[in-house]
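Exercise 3.2. Students should predict the tertiary structure of the chain below and write it as structure tokens, then compare their answer with the key that follows.

Predict this chain's 3D structure.
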Amino acid sequence: MLIYIRQWQEKMKPQPNANPLVVLLSWFVFGLFLLLALGLGLIFLLVGWILLLPVMWRKRRELKQVWQFNKAARQAQRDAQQRYQQQREQTRNRSDDSVIEGEYKVKNDD
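Answer key:
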């Protein structure tokens, strides 16, 4: 690994007979490309965020619909349970109406 690092360091060092103006110009071009890449990255990031807003809005709306559906289902279940209990009470009351409670005596026919 150190061999590769030393080789890259040697490649990156300017040659001793290189023109300082060319070295300076190459670093300037490298900086411009770096700034251009950074700017493009930020533009892509902003476009991604802008495009993400409708997706998040749609997902939020879907979650809201699921929540409302669950709420309505729970309410319908409670209503059905109450109706069932009322029907049971009504059938119990109907059967109780046909029974006459009280005491009775058996009379002798003699």
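Discussion points: The chain has a mean pLDDT of 87. The first helix runs from residue 2 to 12.
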